[in-house]
């Protein structure tokens, strides 16, 4: 590795100089151990430990010292949000910005899989990808099933099954012992391969493949199949990327992990995996069974959180389900509170929390970062239990619907932001793929991939490239300017698709202009007679708050998905009995996992809301932990 970057990349003086430039402190030896490590490792990082800042610092140091013009650093994350956070931090220094260009790669695991494995595999078969999207795939598959006479027997057979439509809409490829097999959503074929229905099921999947329509899952199976056929590709990938950093490793699925093991398993590549397994909230299984499961037993740790103090740290430590970790709180010594309510005071919980936040958190902090109200469930289900969800506490609350109107302008704004961060290729690709999705609504002819667009300004491809440039550089505030751009697109589409537009009315919604609204959130209304100094809270799901830092957080007791237990009540039971969360029932573990994520967000105030009948048995033990307990009934009209 030393021939790839300068051997003094991580010496103390250089680390301290760049850390000071970025405004980072490195008071703990564990931080230095990670920064200076040049070997493969796993790092289990507690919430608020500064993991993302350390990753940014380490990558900037590598960018500063990197010497090879053809071999690079590969940085992979689970989500675009995590990738964007890393990219944003790298733009802070010239050395970091170097990593945004060839030969380096920064992106999601999905993007890496598509770029280096799945797309080359499909191109070798002469297949041009039209879309990789689960919903688009489902729509196309069901249309094909209904309209094509070739699949009549399959359609009839599926009509006798309650999950018939889902079997086709969610059909996926699986790489089984080197064979690419069409399966249902559970990973097994729904019919015998030799039956008429089985043959038609496989044929329908193949037709969609030839049309270039895929699910996200398909791309991993295609990549795995390509690796099986060409095992030398793993060696080539390890050579191209001798240093690999995987962020948010806890959310990597078994399928993704298996593929990454095959790609970067060969000796030679340094693979450093970073995450917090106790924030793994997207997996149902208690633990993945693979030998490479994150984190490995000998993993390094970052146990010190600078986000919160000892009270929240002690609570969080007791809720570490997947891997027991004693978290040390080095932040502000905040307040932990329990708000106890009755059936008739549910609607008073959030106002009481807002008054408590106003009394305990500096006002400027609340203005910069309004109090957050979180629930594991946003809206009510069919169960009779009460309260069930965030909407039970906040009358009139509804979750934000999926945005369809103005979908192209929304994507264009996201692409402009990517371009401004330095990732021009990703911005153009994102925007062109969105235009291809729009065109598919009103044209029987598909648009070609970006790389196939002609560059001659006199051709349709050249005019498309000019339009892409103008979309990425033009102000989008005026509906008049947007109308000019979309009119150019509508004139261009027939030439690009070589077919007339049909059903142009379908494009009205996706091409509509909508004003820019920065990060729309559900802000709860503050009553007209609210106490002076109260800052209105923002409501949302615990899942959506992952990775955030709040000044004050309220976790509302909600019905967990079995419909039989309330999550906060189960967590109070764990804490009052001092029970090992990893040994609790699976339903209780799931509740603890979610509450752990929500409870590790705030810096100053963490509050829980629980019904009196469920809270009272635990109040004595909770008080002994240093929590404050408040009865909503007696506080309805009183400042806290």
Automatic annotation (TrEMBL):
Q: Gene3D superfamilies, alphabetically?
A: P-loop containing nucleotide triphosphate hydrolases
Q: Which residues bind ATP?
A: 45-52
Coiled-coil blocks: none
Keyword Repeat attached: no
Outline the extent of the UvrD-like helicase ATP-binding domain: 24-326
Q: What's the superkingdom here? A: Bacteria
GO BP term (any one): recombinational repair
Going by the UniProt record, its keywords in alphabetical order are: ATP-binding, Helicase, Hydrolase, Nucleotide-binding
A GO molecular function annotation here is: hydrolase activity
Has keyword Cell membrane? no
**What's this protein's name?**
UvrD-helicase domain-containing protein
Which species is this UniProt entry from? Streptomyces guryensis
């Amino acid at each position: 590795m030393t021939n790839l970057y300068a051997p003094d990349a991580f010496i103390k003086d250089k680390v301290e100089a760049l850390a000071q430039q970025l405004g980072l402190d490195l008071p703990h030896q564990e931080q230095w151990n990670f920064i200076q490590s040049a070997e493969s490792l796993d790092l289990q990082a507690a919430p608020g430990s500064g993991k993302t800042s350390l990753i940014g610092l380490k990558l900037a140091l590598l960018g500063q010292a990197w010497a090879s013009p053809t071999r690079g650093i590969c940085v992979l994350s689970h989500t675009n949000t995590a990738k964007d956070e890393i990219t944003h931090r790298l733009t802070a220094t010239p050395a970091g910005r170097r990593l945004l260009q060839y030969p380096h790669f920064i992106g999601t695991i999905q993007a890496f899989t598509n770029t280096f494995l799945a797309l080359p595999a499909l191109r070798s078969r002469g297949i041009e990808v039209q879309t990789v999207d689960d919903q688009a795939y489902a729509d196309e598959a069901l249309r094909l099933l209904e309209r094509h006479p070739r699949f009549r027997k399959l359609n009839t057979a599926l009509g006798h099954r309650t999950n018939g439509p889902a079997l086709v809409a969610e059909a996926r490829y699986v790489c089984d012992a080197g064979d690419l097999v069409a399966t249902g959503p559970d990973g097994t074929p729904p019919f015998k391969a030799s039956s008429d229905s089985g043959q038609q099921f496989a044929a329908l999947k193949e037709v969609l493949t030839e049309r270039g329509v895929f699910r996200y899952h398909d791309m991993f199976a295609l990549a795995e199949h390509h690796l099986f056929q060409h095992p030398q590709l793993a060696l080539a990938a390890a050579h191209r990327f001798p240093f690999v950093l995987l962020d948010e490793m806890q959310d990597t699925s078994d399928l993704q992990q298996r593929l990454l093991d095959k790609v970067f398993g060969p000796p030679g590549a340094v693979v450093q995996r970073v995450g917090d397994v106790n924030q793994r909230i997207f997996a149902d299984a208690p633990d993945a069974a693979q030998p490479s499961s994150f984190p490995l037993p000998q993993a390094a740790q970052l146990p010190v959180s600078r986000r919160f103090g000892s009270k929240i740290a002690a609570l969080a430590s007791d809720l570490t389900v997947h891997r027991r970790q004693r978290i040390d709180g080095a932040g502000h010594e905040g307040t932990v509170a329990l708000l106890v309510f009755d059936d008739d005071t549910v609607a008073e919980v959030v106002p009481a929390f807002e008054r408590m936040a106003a009394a305990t958190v500096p006002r400027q902090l609340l203005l910069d970062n309004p109090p957050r109200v979180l629930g594991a469930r946003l809206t009510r289900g069919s169960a009779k239990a009460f309260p069930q969800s965030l909407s039970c506490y906040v009358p009139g609350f509804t979750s934000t619907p999926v945005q369809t109107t103005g979908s192209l302008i929304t994507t264009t704004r996201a692409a402009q932001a990517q371009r401004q961060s330095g990732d021009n290729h990703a911005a153009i690709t994102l925007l062109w793929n969105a235009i291809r999705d729009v065109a598919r609504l009103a044209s029987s002819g598909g648009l070609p991939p970006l790389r196939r667009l002609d560059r001659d300004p006199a051709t349709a491809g050249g005019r498309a490239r000019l339009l892409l440039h103008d979309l990425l550089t033009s102000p989008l505030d005026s509906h008049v300017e947007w109308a000019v751009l979309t009119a150019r697109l509508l004139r261009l589409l027939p030439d690009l698709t070589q077919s007339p537009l049909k059903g142009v009315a379908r494009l009205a919604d996706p091409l509509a202009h909508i004003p820019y609204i920065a990060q729309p959130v559900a802000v709860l209304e503050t009553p007209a007679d609210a106490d002076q100094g109260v800052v209105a809270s923002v409501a949302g799901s615990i899942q959506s708050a992952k990775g955030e830092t709040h000044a004050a957080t309220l976790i509302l007791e909600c019905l967990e998905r079995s419909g039989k237990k309330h999550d906060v009540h189960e967590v109070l039971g764990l804490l009052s009995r001092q029970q090992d969360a990893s040994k609790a029932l699976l339903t209780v573990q799931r509740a603890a996992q979610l509450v752990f994520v929500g409870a590790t967000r705030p810096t100053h105030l963490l509050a829980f809301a629980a019904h009196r009948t469920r809270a009272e048995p635990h109040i004595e033990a909770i008080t002994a932990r240093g929590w404050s307990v408040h009865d909503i009934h007696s506080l309805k009209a009183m400042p806290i």
